[in-house]
Amino acid sequence: LTMDEFSPAEDLFTAEDPACLGANLAVATLSDLLAAGAEPKFFMQSISLPGNVEQKFVEGIMEGIRTILSSLDCTLCGGDVGTADPWRFCGFGMGPINFGRPITHRLSLERQTLWVTGALGDANLAALQKTSTPRFELRNKEAKLIRSRATGCIDTSGGFFDALWILHEQNPELRFDLRINDIPFAHGINSAASTMNFPMEAALLGGAGEYELLFAIPEKAEKEIKDSLSSVNATCIGTISNDPEAGIHLLRRNGSKKIMTEPPPCPRAVSNTEEYTREVMAMARHLFEIDKP
Q1: pLDDT given at position 293
Q2: Cα–Cα distance for residue pair 8/15, rounded to 1 Å
Q3: Pick from 156, 125, 132: which is nearest to 20 by CA?
Q4: What is the pLDDT of residue 289?
Q5: What is the Cα–Cα distance from 144 to 234, expressed in whole angstroms?
Q6: Is residue 19 within 8 Å of 134, Cβ to Cβ?
Q7: Strand arrangement, sheet containing 2-6
Q8: pLDDT score, position 205
Q9: Can you give the pLDDT at residue 89?
Q10: pLDDT averaged over 10-residue windows placed end to end, the chain, 293 residues
Q11: Sequential DSSP letters for 240-283
């Protein structure tokens, strides 16, 4: 079971394209089920919209939701409609675990490889540039491969480094060696970072998530599994080991290393977006300005 609430202030989802918004709301609601190894089968929703909302906007949101549910053979069972300005949405999803156990955030102590689906950072870039939220990808095909072999999984609903920090907190005895140069960045982040003079990795520290799946599999997993993951654009970005030097180690090909000692800035802990952006950029420059080897 999963339930999640969304609003433009909390999640920074834009509404210029209501069909895209509806699809994103469905993906964001069901992403936690996919991360747990469940197959989404039932969906309910509560949606509140401004009293003067146009019917076309309502139809667009519902069409976006239907598109995602249909692709999963997931049934919309009903819900509630209310009035609020700006909009609010609460989604509920439910589905079975067919592989014997749910996937959690607790990892095994064996040596593992760390993987992520898709490309990262586009939602944070959109929030920074105040452009439309990108359409999130439903990672159902990837989740089917992950279910049978993952030792742990989490979605990047609060941004990549927020998800990684949660895994670290849940597994304080483990060492995460993250290969920064192998992280797949979304299109446009490199040029935007260069133009606006900030480290690319700032797009991974912000709290606008893209709902990709961050997961681990045993390092000794069969080559066939790794090849299958690579074929659906999952990327191996590091290793996990039971090591006295536990924590998140940030590694670059040029030999520079840093240890992440505190979580990403929390957007709820600051008074406004500008202050939050400054904190994210400051942390990004501290961690990711390229050091000499």
Answers
A1: 39
A2: 8
A3: 132
A4: 80
A5: 13
A6: no
A7: 2-6, 88-94, 42-49, 75-83
A8: 96
A9: 97
A10: 93 94 97 96 96 94 97 96 94 92 94 96 94 96 91 96 98 98 95 92 94 95 87 94 96 92 92 92 89 42
A11: EEE-SS-EEEEE-TTS-EEEE-SPPPPGGGSSSHHHHHHHHHHH
Q: Which of 50, 40, 51 is nearest to 77 (CA)?
A: 40
Which candidate, 158, 169, 139, 95, places its Cα nearest to that of 234?
139
Q: Which residue has tokens 């491969």?
A: 145
As a whole number of angstroms, the distance between CA 25 and CA 141 comes to 19
User: 3-class SS at 172?
Assistant: coil
CA gap 70, 73 in Å, rounded? 5
Separation between Cα atoms, residue 203 and residue 145, nearest integer Å: 27
Give the C-alpha separation, 133 to 68, whole Å.
Answer: 17
What per-residue confidence (pLDDT) applies to 292? 39
At residue 75, the 3 state secondary structure works out as strand
Residue 54, C-beta contacts closer than 8 angstroms, at least 6 positions apart = none
Using CA atoms, how far residue 195 sits from 64, 180, 192, 213, 278, in Å, is 34, 21, 5, 29, 17
Beta strands in the chain (DSSP E): 2-6, 42-49, 75-83, 88-94, 112-117, 152-155, 174-179, 213-218, 234-242, 247-251, 257-260
Task: Say which residue the tokens 């689906």 belong to.
Answer: 117
CB atoms within 10 A of CB 71: 13
The pLDDT value recorded for residue 233 is 87
